[in-house]
Design a protein that fits this description.
heterodimer, A: 111 residues, alpha/beta, Transcription Regulator spoIIAA, 3 helices, 6 strands, B: 446 residues, alpha+beta, Beta-Lactamase, Phosphatase 2c, domain 1, 2 domains, 5-stranded antiparallel β-sheet, 11 helices, coiled coil (chain B), kinase (chain B)
Chain lengths: 111, 446
C-alpha cells in the first residue's frame, strides 16, 4: 500500500491538487477534506493532477464526484489532469468521462 | 593443626587449660543439680500416672511449685484437653504395650494460662520380676519447632490463597472472553441475517437455463456492498442483475437494500433494462447525491427470454459496470459491450442503452464485480489481476456451463489469497448444450 500524498499549488487557472499514491476506502477522506478546504471562485478551474495516482476504488471515485459537485456549486470548472491510462480505462467503464473533462499526459493546467 | 607455636590458638596450651577447667566444673556438678536444671523437663510417675518426681525446669515451664504437683497431680493433669484425650486413647495404651514412646507432640497447660508445645518421650521402668514400676518421661520445649511448622503452614496457606486468587482471576478472564465471544457471534449472526436480506437465499429455477452464483465476502464482520438477483418478471421473461455499491459497511448495506428493491419493482413495472436503470438512477440521485452526499452503484441489469428454439435472448444495460463476458460454445470468450453507461445515481439524467445478445446452446454469460479484476496479484501484491487476464481465463474455460465457470473462478479467487481484499460477486447464466427437457417457462412466477 502506498500512502496517499496530496500537494497543493495555485496556477493561473485556479488551484491545483497533485494526488499521488492509492486513493481507497482508508485514504479517501483526506482528499475529501483537502478539496473542501480549497478556495474556489466562479470562473476558476480546480485541477486534480492524477499523474501519481496508482489506484482508485469506488470510494475514491465518490470523492472525485464530491469534488465535481463542490466545483459546480462554486460556479467553477474541474479538470482531471494527467490521468494514467490504467485509471482512464476504469473511469471510462464507470462513465466518468461523461462527467469530467479528462486530460491525459502531463499536467495541462499551465503552471 | 595442633601446632605449638606462640599463636594464641584456642587448641593450644591455653585452650587446653580452659577445657580442663570446664571438665572439672562439670565433675563438680552433682547428678541432682543436672537433673533439676537440665535443658529439658524430667518427670517420673507411678503406673497410674501420679507424679512422683519432677524437675525444676519443668516446674518453671508449668509455673507450678513442687508441693502442688508431687503426689497430688497426674501427668494428664498437666495436659490440655486434646492432649488428655490423645494420652488416654493412644499414648498410654502404646506405652503399656511397647514399654517406650518417643517424640510425641503434646501441649501442656501453664499455670498462668497459655500452652506450651512439647515433645514427650516416655519409658517404663520394670522391676526384677518384669513388673512395671514407674514411668520416666522427658519433656522438650517444642515451641520453636511448632512456630516453624506454623510458619510453614501459614506459607502454604498463603500460597494456596494466591493460587485460588489466580484461579479466580483466570475464571473471570475466561468468563469475560466467553461473553465477548458470545457478543461477537451474536453480531456476526445479525450481520449474516442482514446480508441474506441483501442477497437471494437461492436462485429460482429458470427452465431451459442453468444459473450459478458465487459470493466472496472480504470480511465476515463487514456487510458487503456487492449484490445480485434473479427473478421472474412474467411467464416468459426473467430479470437478473449484479452490481457493486460505493463504500463499505452499514451505509453500503443500506444503499444495496434500496438498490435491490428498487430494481425489483422497476423490472415488474417495465421490464426493459435501460428503463430499470433509469428508475434506479432517479431514486439514488434523489435520495443521496442531490442532497450533497454522492452515492452510487455500478450495475448490470438484464432480461432473459428463453426462446422456443433452445436459445435465449438477453437484453442488457450497464451503469458504470465492467462489461459482461460471454463464453461461446465454440470456445471463444468475448466482452459484451454496453456503451455509454454511467455510474448509477450521480447525475439527475443519465444515459443508459440496452444492448442485445443471443445465448445459443452451450453459451454462458458471466457477470462479475471488480473485486475479481482488482484483486492484487504478484509476489508484492502490487499488480491488479485486470480485465485482459479475466478474458483470457474465460477463453481457456470456454466452452463451459455456468456451474463450471463459477467453480473455476472460485478456485481462481481462492488462489488470490489475501490479494483478494474486496467483496466479489459472480453470476453466470447459460443455455445447456443439450436442451433441457423442461422447455421454456410457462408458469414460474412466485
Amino acid at each position: 500500500m502506498t500512502p496517499l500524498n496530496i500537494t497543493h499549488r495555485d496556477a493561473a487557472t485556479g488551484p491545483v491538487l497533485h494526488v499521488a499514491g492509492e486513493l481507497d476506502y482508508d485514504q479517501a477522506a483526506a482528499l475529501r477534506r483537502q478539496v473542501e478546504d480549497v478556495g474556489l471562485g466562479p470562473g476558476q478551474c480546480l485541477t486534480l493532477d492524477l499523474a501519481g495516482l496508482e489506484f482508485c476504488d469506488s470510494t475514491g471515485i465518490t470523492v472525485l464526484l464530491a469534488a465535481w459537485q463542490h466545483a459546480r456549486s462554486a460556479g467553477a470548472d474541474i479538470v482531471l489532469a494527467a490521468v494514467p491510462s490504467s485509471l482512464r480505462r476504469v473511469f471510462t467503464i464507470v462513465g466518468l468521462d461523461q462527467v469530467f473533462n479528462l486530460e491525459a499526459g502531463t499536467d495541462a493546467s499551465g503552471a | 593443626m595442633c601446632r605449638t607455636g606462640d599463636s594464641p590458638d584456642p587448641a593450644g596450651a591455653g585452650g587446653r587449660a580452659r577445657t580442663a577447667a570446664a571438665f572439672s566444673a562439670l565433675l563438680e556438678d552433682s547428678a541432682e543439680e543436672l537433673y533439676e536444671s537440665a535443658p529439658c523437663g524430667y518427670l517420673s510417675t507411678l503406673m497410674d500416672g501420679t507424679i512422683a518426681k519432677i524437675n525444676r525446669t519443668l516446674l518453671d515451664w508449668l509455673g507450678l511449685e513442687r508441693e502442688d504437683v508431687v503426689g497430688s497431680m497426674r501427668f494428664t493433669d498437666l495436659l490440655t484437653v486434646g492432649g488428655k484425650l490423645y494420652h488416654e486413647t493412644h499414648f498410654a495404651p502404646l506405652l503399656r504395650m511397647q514399654g517406650e514412646l518417643r517424640g510425641i507432640a503434646l501441649e501442656i497447660r501453664k499455670a498462668g494460662g497459655g500452652r506450651l508445645p512439647v515433645l514427650v518421650s516416655s519409658v517404663v521402668k520394670y522391676g526384677t520380676e518384669g513388673q512395671p514400676l514407674l514411668i520416666r518421661t522427658t519433656v522438650f520445649d517444642a515451641s520453636d519447632r511448632r512456630a516453624y511448622e506454623e510458619e510453614l503452614l501459614r506459607r502454604r496457606q498463603d500460597a494456596e490463597r494466591a493460587r485460588a486468587e489466580a484461579e479466580r482471576a483466570r475464571a473471570e478472564a475466561e468468563e469475560a472472553h466467553r461473553q465477548a465471544e458470545a457478543d461477537r457471534l451474536r453480531l456476526a449472526d445479525a450481520l449474516a441475517v442482514l446480508q441474506q436480506s441483501l442477497l437471494p437465499e437461492i436462485l429460482p429455477v429458470v427452465p431451459g437455463v442453468e444459473t450459478a452464483v458465487h459470493y466472496h465476502t472480504a470480511s465476515p464482520d463487514q456487510l458487503g456492498g456487492d449484490f445480485y438477483d434473479v427473478f421472474p418478471v412474467d411467464g416468459t421473461r426473467w430479470a437478473f442483475f449484479l452490481g457493486d455499491v460505493c463504500g463499505k459497511g452499514p451505509q453500503a448495506a443500506a444503499l444495496t437494500s434500496l438498490t435491490r428493491y428498487t430494481l425489483r419493482a422497476a423490472a415488474h413495472h417495465n421490464p426493459v433494462p435501460a428503463a430499470a436503470l433509469t428508475t434506479l438512477n432517479t431514486v439514488l440521485h434523489d435520495r443521496y447525491t442531490a442532497g450533497g452526499d454522492p452515492r452510487y452503484c455500478t450495475c448490470v441489469f438484464g432480461i432473459l427470454e428463453p426462446g422456443a428454439d433452445g436459445s435465449a435472448a438477453v437484453h442488457l444495460a450497464s451503469g458504470g459496470h465492467p462489461p459482461a463476458i460471454v463464453l461461446r460454445a465454440d470456445g471463444r470468450a468475448e466482452l459484451l459491450p454496453t456503451p455509454g453507461g454511467l455510474l448509477v445515481g450521480i447525475l439527475p439524467d443519465a444515459p443508459f442503452v440496452t444492448a442485445t445478445a443471443t445465448l445459443a446452446p452451450g453459451d454462458t454469460i458471466l457477470l462479475y464485480t471488480d473485486g475479481l479484476t482488482e484483486a492484487r496479484t504478484g509476489p508484492t501484491r502490487d499488480h491488479l489481476y485486470g480485465e485482459d487476464a479475466l478474458l483470457a481465463f474465460a477463453a481457456d474455460q470456454a466452452p463451459a456451463a455456468p456451474g463450471e465457470v463459477i467453480e473455476a473462478l472460485t478456485d481462481l479467487l481462492r488462489g488470490f489469497g489475501d490479494g483478494l481484499d474486496d467483496d466479489t460477486a459472480l453470476l453466470a447464466l447459460g443455455v445447456p448444450a443439450t436442451p433441457s427437457p423442461t422447455g421454456p417457462a410457462t408458469n414460474h412466477s412466485r
